[in-house]
Amino acid sequence: MSTYLIKDAKVLGGDAQDVLIRDGLIAGIGAGLTAEDATVVDAAGQILLPGLVDLHTHLREPGREDAETVATGANAAALGGFTAVHAMANTDPVADTAGTVEQVWRLGQESGRCDVHPVGAVTVGLEGKRLAELGAMADSAARVRVFSDDGKCVDDAVIMRRALEYVKAFDGVVAQHAQEPRLTEGAQMNEGTVSGELGLRGWPAVAEESIIARDVLLTAHVGSRLHVCHVSTAGSVEILRWAKSKGWNVTAEVTPHHLLLTDELVRSYDPVYKVNPPLRTAADVTALREALADGTIDAVATDHAPHPSEDKDCEWAVAAMGMLGLETALSIVQETMVDTGLLDWAGVADRMSTRPADIGRLDGHGRPIAVGEPANLVLVDPGARRTVEPSELASRSRNTPYAGLVLPGRVVATFLRGEPTVIDGKLA
Amino acid sequence: MKRHLISAADLTRDDAILILDTAEELAHIAERPIKKLPTLRGRTVVNLFFEDSTRTRISFEAAAKRLSADVINFSAKGSSVSKGESLKDTALTLQAMGADAVVIRHHASGAPHRLAGSGWLRGSVVNAGDGTHEHPTQALLDAFTMRRRLAGGRGDLEGRRITLVGDVLHSRVARSNVLLLATLGAEVTLVAPPTLLPIGVETWPCTVSYDLDAPLPKSDAVMMLRVQRERMNAAFFPTEREYSRRYGLDLRRMAMLPEHAIVMHPGPMNRGMEIAAEVADSTRSTIVEQVTNGVSVRMAVLYLLLGGNEPALSAPSTTGTEEIAK
Ligand SMILES: [Zn+2]
């Protein structure tokens, strides 16, 4: 195993220190460290964070390997500073059995770039009718702890209640894609003045909020754990704030794109902005940023959703929903949260590593930067600027809404258990 | 004018009046035994229809042919072309064939915008109705009809009061009309049950009423919008009978209109639903006239997008048009 000495890195954005990595662990932290056998990494001006953890990634394998594979997704994750991602279950076949989740988990192991933790489907085939074998997935080699029908809402209140109750047996969490199906039939974008003008069927905020309200009450009733995926409205934030004030075990995530982009962009009818949940208003964006800052929203999750060009280079109505996220997430968080003064780098570490690792019950990730801890780390140059060039992304797909934008910050290096997966901003 | 006509919002007041004035000149062609000008000879106009609309297609076809353009009708509905990538592939084909203008009708809102803005095509794009978004040439022909009936066929519609009634939520005609009529200075009132009004309608350049009787005595024109009967299942209103009573234009309501006021409908009508048969057939109804005017307005649009900025009929003598100039 390799030995690395990271020189003069600002740990969590604090004072510059040297960090020694040996045998996959952090072996020393302090000023003026030396190690003769170490490869020295000059990190002056750079920030050292725990490796990022994504609770919400779509890797498309099995089934849509033309959009992404576990391997290409893991490369994108590493370049984005992630050392662990949760791969959503809406693959083909759906990840609703121990066999499928083990397959995805093993592909992640083989990639060597990033730990891939499969999310298990809550219901068979994401159909919302019968519970999948949640226990078998929990007991499998993949040790699934997060269960979600993401892409579809578990809208049957009884099935949702049973899922919340059942996962208590193995400390699991149900991650809900909150979308009342009848209120969003044929929905194309956020329901508001823009949808009215564009003649696109609206997706009202209340369709998300009503499900979250129901689910937090169910969670309290059965005493379980709920995680709310990609919260997108100011009203959802209010419900979460209330649920947390009651002491209920409810967590939530927000995507980078919901922290930056608004439904005004849909005026272009460019399907790169078509995403589920839809881009909302500027007032929602403000509320989401504040909620992430004050902890009402626990984590940033990318909802990385690769699609091949033929599914996006078409008219809005038939375009697939989703956008890439892994390789730009940290930059968007820097732009919307750090550079605005809402969150410091320790806060970023909490929302992008510690909290998501805890929600997913991952042992080796989201740990403090301290001697004896696993060396899952990322080095960031916050002063760098880069223009997003889709052809340069490691993802197999190109559907980024940030093409041509100049974004702050750059992931310089990522370490997974002491070995670099990215060095000098490139795959190691 | 811009290169494309996607939305009524693309038109400034001057653009709109130029189109209406040009249409007024071109309307005289229809009165001649040989209804044809050489203006767009050698140009190719493609009618690209992803959704059935024989009326609109024929209107555009007649307009293009009267200007001597070559017309290709491409009906994408029912062919193998039904998936999403079809729009791009079709556009690339039309581009390869050298289409100078593509008149597109599509069931998806934004499809013409996408066609115009994607770089798939070099020619002009004319929106002939997209989803529940817009139908700008319909708004132009409606404005043309109003201007003839209410303003002597000249200038704008400053101060005219226009009431649009019915399913505004799903109506591309209503969206385009509100935008264009506001640009032309008219005061527009939308009347509909609250379930058939779009979210955010309060930000539109018009007023909104749930009550049809109130605006009628002050209206110069009433435009009835088609109610799609299949929407009944979606509970936008309780019954057809209740809708008809509250929002239908019958003889009693027509009697509330001022003497000079006209009754309009973009067609096709549900007689007995949003409009009583006696009203549709009355002398106040401009429904047939609107169809005729549609050809003139579409000629003007195609001419102005493809032919340049000089007046359509005062071109050099080689065009042979001076004989019909006023
Ligand atoms: Zn989702």
From TrEMBL, chain A:
Cofactors demanded by this protein: Zn(2+)
GO cellular component, one term: cytoplasm
Domain Dihydroorotase catalytic residues, every copy: 45-234
InterPro entries named in the record: DHOase (IPR004722), DHOase/Allantoinase_Hydrolase (IPR050138), DHOase_cat (IPR024403), Dihydroorotase_CS (IPR002195), Metal-dep_hydrolase_composite (IPR011059), Metal_Hydrolase (IPR032466)
Residues the entry annotates as binding Zn(2+) 2: D150, H177, H230
Reactions listed under catalytic activity: (S)-dihydroorotate + H2O = N-carbamoyl-L-aspartate + H(+)
Functional pathway: Pyrimidine metabolism; UMP biosynthesis via de novo pathway; (S)-dihydroorotate from bicarbonate: step 3/3
Cofactor descriptive note: Binds 2 Zn(2+) ions per subunit.
Residues engaged in binding substrate: H58, L59, R60, N90, N276, H307
Molecular functions per Gene Ontology: allantoinase activity; dihydroorotase activity; zinc ion binding
Binding site for Zn(2+) 1: H56, H58, D150, D303
Gene3D superfamilies per UniProt: Metal-dependent hydrolases, Urease, subunit C, domain 1
GO BP: any one term: purine nucleobase catabolic process
Residues annotated as catalytic: D303
The enzyme's E.C. designation: 3.5.2.3
PANTHER family in the cross-refs: ALLANTOINASE
UniProt family annotation: Belongs to the metallo-dependent hydrolases superfamily. DHOase family. Class I DHOase subfamily.
Name this polypeptide is given: Dihydroorotase
Organism of this sequence: Embleya scabrispora
UniProtKB/TrEMBL annotation, chain B:
GO biological process, one term: amino acid metabolic process
Enzyme class: transferase
Aspartate/ornithine carbamoyltransferase Asp/Orn-binding domain ranges (all copies): 159-305
Top-level taxon of origin: Bacteria
An example Gene Ontology molecular-function term: amino acid binding
Domain Aspartate/ornithine carbamoyltransferase carbamoyl-P binding: 3-147
Enzyme Commission code: 2.1.3.2
Binding site for L-aspartate: K83, R172, R226
UniProtKB keywords: Pyrimidine biosynthesis, Transferase
Binding site for carbamoyl phosphate: R55, T56, R105, H135, Q138, G267, P268
Pathway the protein takes part in: Pyrimidine metabolism; UMP biosynthesis via de novo pathway; (S)-dihydroorotate from bicarbonate: step 2/3
Annotated Gene Ontology cellular component terms: cytosol
Catalytic activities: carbamoyl phosphate + L-aspartate = N-carbamoyl-L-aspartate + phosphate + H(+)
Complexes and interactors: Heterododecamer (2C3:3R2) of six catalytic PyrB chains organized as two trimers (C3), and six regulatory PyrI chains organized as three dimers (R2).
Family label: Belongs to the aspartate/ornithine carbamoyltransferase superfamily. ATCase family.
Purpose: Catalyzes the condensation of carbamoyl phosphate and aspartate to form carbamoyl aspartate and inorganic phosphate, the committed step in the de novo pyrimidine nucleotide biosynthesis pathway.
Protein name: Aspartate carbamoyltransferase
Organism of derivation: Embleya scabrispora
